Amino acid sequence: MATIELRLSPKIQKETGRSEILLRLFQGSKLNLRAKSGVYVTAEHFEYFIDRKRTFLNGVSVPDKATSVTMKEAVKNGYVVFERGDVFVRNRIASEDKTYHDNAKKKIEELKQIILESYEIADKDAVSSDWLQMIIDKFHHPEKYIPKDEQPNKPSFFDCMNDFRDNAKKKVNGKREGDKSDVWKKNFDVLVRALHRYEYFIRLSDCKRKGFALDIDTMNKETLEDIESYLRNEHTLLEEYPNIFAKFPANTDTKRKSPKPQPRGNNTICALFNKLKAFYNWAIEKGKTANDPFKSYEGVTSEKYGTPYYITLEERNQIADFDLSARPALATQRDIFIFQCCIGCRVSDLMRLTESNIIDGAVEYIPTKTKGENQKTVSVPLNNRAMEILNRYKGNTKKGLILPFINPQKYNDAIKEIFTVCGVTRNVTVVDSVTGEEVQRPINKVASSHMARRCFVGNLYQKIQDPNLIASMSGHAEGSKAFARYRAIDKDTKKKVVSLID
Questions:
Q1: Integer angstrom CA distances of residue 407 from 181, 262, 413
Q2: Element at 49 (helix H, strand E)
Q3: Which of 361, 352, 412 is nearest to 386 (CA)?
Q4: pLDDT tens digits for 371-393?
Q5: Considering the entire predicted model, what is its pTM?
Q6: pLDDT value of position 223
Q7: Per-residue DSSP letter, 377
Q8: Which helix (DSSP H) or strand (DSSP E) does residue 119 occupy?
Q9: Phi/psi at 101 (5° precision)
C-alpha cells in the first residue's frame, strides 16, 4: 500500500515566514516520488517525529506521550528526529494564525487522500513525478481541468484588470470603502498598456505562441520574471517591433506625439509590479482566482530612494528676489514656483487652485492623489511672501485660477532655467533612475515642480520636528512612507548634535 510522508522545505517566504510542505509518495522499492504540495506553514506548526532509539543512545529520555516536536523543541531537549513530520495546531485561542493553520492542516489531509485515491486507480506505468504534480495542481486549481465545452464563459485577463480599475476600493480605516483617485487610475492604465504590449510581443516574437494570452489563473513566477525582463528591455524593441507601440502607445495624450520609450529603473518597475500585485490580491479576495503568482516570486520587491535634496530658504529667497524684469514670462513662472514653495502642494493640485480655495488667509484643497482614500481638507496658512504673489496677479488670470499657470512640462523646463539664471547650481547627490546608483548632478539640471514641495517639507522639518503637523499641510496621507524620506537631517544639525559630546 502506498504511503505519503511530509517534510518541511528549508526555504522560508520573506513576507509570511512560512515554508512549503514537501510530499513523498512511496511504496516499498517500486515507488518513490517527491513533489511540492503548494501548502505553506510556519515552523512552529510543523512537528518532526522523534527517533526514540537514537535519542536514547545519546543518553536522553523521551516522555512516553511525546511522539513529535518542533525543530526548536528538538534542539532544546536534545531529541534526535526524523526528517518526516506532520502539521499540528496546538494553540486553542482563536486567532488569524490558528484559522490559517487549521485550514492548512485540513487542506494537506484532503490532498493526501486525493493522491492516494488517484494512485489506486491510476495506470501504474503512467505514474511519475509529472503525474503527481498534476494531481496536486488539479487539487488546487480544478477549474483548469474542466473540459473546454463545459467551462463557463470566463472573463479575459484584461476584463478582470478593468473591473479592478473601475470598481476596486481603497482601504480606509481598515475597510474597503474609498474610491481610487483619478491619478491612481491613470497610473494603473500605464501598467495595463504595458501588459498589452508584452502579450503582443510574445505573439510576434515566438512562433510557437502566436495565440498567447495572459491568463489570471495560469500566470506564475516565470511569467512575472519574463514580464520584468520585458519591462527592463522594452525601450530596445521600438525599431524591431514598431507595431507594438503603434497599437498600444506608451502615452495616450493625444495632444502630443507619443514619446519614444525610455529605459525603466528599478523603482518604476517596482511601482508597476506593486499595482499588479494589488490586482491579484483583489482578485483572490473576490474569488475571481485562487492563483497567486507572487507567492514564490523573488524579483523586484522594494523601491530605492536617496535622501531628498531641496533648496535652502536662502536659495529660495535668492531666486525670489533675483531681478528678472528683462524676462517677464520667466519672472511669472518664478513667482509660481516660489508660491508653491510656500504652500508645498503637488503640481496637480497647484494648477487647479482658484480664488475659491483661498479662505481666511489660507489655501484649502483636497489632494487629488489621496482623494477617495483620505478626504481630509488640507489647509495651509499663507505667509507674507505668498500673499504678495497672489495680490500681484489677482484679477489677471483665466478661469478664476489664482495664478497664470502653463503646461506642467513647460513649467518644469522654466524652473530649470530659473535656477540657472539665478545662479543656484550647486551639485546634489541623486539616485540614477535606471541604474539605481548614487550620482552627482547640478541642482539646476534636476530641478522640477516637486523641488518646491521638498523645499516646503524639508525646511519646515528643520524648524519643527513634527511630522504629523507638517503632513497635515503637505497633503501626505497619514503614515505615508514617502513622508519619512523628507526627514533628512542637514549637515548643520548633525554638527550641532555631535558638538553635544565634544
A1: 21, 22, 10
A2: strand 46-50
A3: 361
A4: 555 567 889 999 999 999 999 99
A5: 0.53
A6: 93
A7: P
A8: helix 96-121
A9: -75, -25
Cell of 392: 500681484
- What does the alpha-carbon distance between residue 283 and residue 289 come to, in Å, rounded to a whole number? 6
| Grid cell for residue 410 | 513647460
Residue 152 burial class via C-beta count within 10 angstroms: exposed 0-12, middle 13-18, buried 19 and up = exposed
Three cell numbers written together for 183: 491619478
* Number of Cβ atoms within 10 Å of the Cβ of 59: 7
Q: What is the mean pLDDT of residues 297-301?
A: 74
Distance spanning both ends of the chain, measured CA to CA? 78
| C-alpha to C-alpha distance for 118 and 112, rounded to whole angstroms | 10
Q: How confident is the model at residue 486 (pLDDT cuts 50, 70, 90)?
A: low
CA distance 7 to 23: 7
DSSP string, 458-490: HHHHHH---HHHHHHHHTPPTT-HHHHTT-PPP
Least confident of 114-118, 339-343, 479-483: 479-483
The burial of 173, by beta-carbon neighbours within 10 Å (0-12 exposed, 13-18 middle, 19 or more buried), is given as exposed
Instruction: Report d(CA 58, CA 81) in Å as an integer.
Output: 12
> Nine-digit cell at 303?
523601491
From CA 453, how far away is CA 340, in angstroms rounded?
7
